[in-house]
Amino acid sequence: MVTIKQMAEMLGVSTTTISNVIHGKTKEVSKETVKRVNELIEACEYVPNINARNLAQNKSKIIGLAIKPRQSKYKKTTKDIFINELTSDIEDYVRKNGYYMMLYISEDIYEIINSVSSWNVDGLILMGMSTDDCIMLKQKFKKPMVFIDSYFDNRVVDYVNVGLDDVGGCHDITKYLIENGHKKIAYIADNCEGCDKYRYLGFRNALIESKIMISDQNFILIQSERNKLGASLEDIFNASKHFTALVCASDYYAVLIMNYLMDKGVKIPEDISIVGFDDNIYAQIVRPHLSTVHQDISEKSKVAVEKLFKMIENESLSEKNTILPTTIVIRNSVKKIAGK
Amino acid sequence: MVTIKQMAEMLGVSTTTISNVIHGKTKEVSKETVKRVNELIEACEYVPNINARNLAQNKSKIIGLAIKPRQSKYKKTTKDIFINELTSDIEDYVRKNGYYMMLYISEDIYEIINSVSSWNVDGLILMGMSTDDCIMLKQKFKKPMVFIDSYFDNRVVDYVNVGLDDVGGCHDITKYLIENGHKKIAYIADNCEGCDKYRYLGFRNALIESKIMISDQNFILIQSERNKLGASLEDIFNASKHFTALVCASDYYAVLIMNYLMDKGVKIPEDISIVGFDDNIYAQIVRPHLSTVHQDISEKSKVAVEKLFKMIENESLSEKNTILPTTIVIRNSVKKIAGK
DNA sequence: TTGAAAGCGCTAACAC
DNA sequence: GTGTTAGCGCTTTCAA
């Protein structure tokens, strides 16, 4: 591979000159020289060494995407359709901005911090971080960061995030159930933190608003670990007899449960109604077609990347914490029942 | 951020010494010094500058994953579940080997070559390359490369690839259909190149073996472009009346078609049988459960990464072109019919 | 309009 | 055991 220095020698000019024309600073160079240099660059198939450039400029053209996988949420992080879609969308936007993306997946926040510092990434997009992680990061990493879908407690106030109206979305879909005559409704999730917690809150609000009694019984925990899932599904099958509708924290679980119940002979929505959250491909594939809460992942990625680049360019942000809206999409998994 | 040089000054030793203990070459350093250095590293929270290291060592610790998206195959490359799964699996294996992965997606092979040269990646995994691309790559990129799922014509002989028994898989599932009394069978794909071509060949072989007439009519082209898909699906619906079974080149299409037909009132498998290829999550979600050809993506990723690292370490490969096996998985989308 | 030279942080050959 | 030093390829300041 040719270097600038070699080309400089060939042409009998200085490296500065070559560098200048590479960077289009041609007003400082005579037309004649520009032409000769460009021709040589072409002929030699010169490719800049990014490492050298990064070192000299103390930057990297890398955007880090750091993900702390929720332990055992679904099986593997790599199989999580939401993360995969978000990741590839972000990569897409990053690349279109002339940067490269590097993925840092680790359960250890220190490892993440070390890696991104080592690579000297120009900015960071983060998912799955806790309040403690955020504090740590702010302390050790001094470049732009934007979080995705994060809820931090009040120990940290100043951070940039792009989230979703989890409360509203789940409220709306629950309300839709209620409007269809449902009163005995359960919420199903595999934990009660972050998004899932706020979705639960939305669910809860809707019931309370309609003066429907709510207790611990209305929250069903699904256990997604490989060896527990079967039993958990069976439990849900049994519990489901006490409800006329189920609101699931994600389409993934909605579809899993739907299929489990249907395979057991339960009719949906005749015997029980189900709704999900996300409106991903699962919701579109399953039959009956799943009614669910729609979120726009591509938009989420886009906003995150845009915010990050604004910060990198020292522009001011119109808002630190963007909450993207949700819409409910009505399909065929809910039955209208006579209020009892 | 602290540098080696700074630490050397603080301790009054040379950078070599620091560098040595960082790299565990402690046999050349006195215990005393090692201890002092380690303590300082700890205290300063020293993080190596990878760019500098890469520059000095002329390597990068980066494995490039280069993908040339098949124009308009599905909507966006980023939504392709197969690519996403493969990508994240590869990333996983690469990271476990202490390397980093960088993604290079472009329809322009020159752009890809430039990028990976620029970053000085230590090895390359490639998908979606044509014979011409391969020739170009071999000419311009002198480091280890392994291709995935590639079929090249005989202009190129020496290359490392990990593929799949596309012919066998499609042959077996077609045979299964035939054994169930089906004679009027169509193959559906959105193109007739690469994998899809070889899958078609397997399909064809199975029919010929059983002395079933085959003509152009047996190949149905599905048009996946957004504005054509609807019409294409309608065409397939009409064409399907002439067949008792459909073998689809992917689960994605199998499910799409299944749902389209079912939404039109067609009963599956009673009215028509369908099988797919891949055995991905779609096949598991859809009802009736899809009978299909199973492939192990995780294994494919693993083999590709292993081959690459062997090449990087100058070990010899037991085989250049690995063809992973397929198995057929029988579920409920095929009906046994009385031969006519 | 052009060039010399220092320096980015790290490695490694070699000398002490 | 430890230090000196010359790069790696590129950018950039400053002088000519």
UniProtKB/TrEMBL annotation, chains A, B:
Entry keyword Glycosyltransferase: no
HTH lacI-type domain: residues covered: 2-57
GO molecular function, one term: transcription cis-regulatory region binding
Annotated PROSITE patterns: HTH_CROC1, HTH_LACI_2
Keywords: DNA-binding, Transcription, Transcription regulation
Residue stretches making up the HTH cro/C1-type domain: 3-37
CDD domains attached to this UniProt entry: HTH_LacI, PBP1_LacI_sugar_binding-like
InterPro entries per the UniProt record, alphabetical: Cro/C1-type_HTH (IPR001387), HTH_LacI (IPR000843), LacI/GalR-like_sensor (IPR046335), Lambda_DNA-bd_dom_sf (IPR010982), Peripla_BP_I (IPR028082)
Protein name: LacI family transcriptional regulator
Species in which this protein is naturally found: Inconstantimicrobium porci
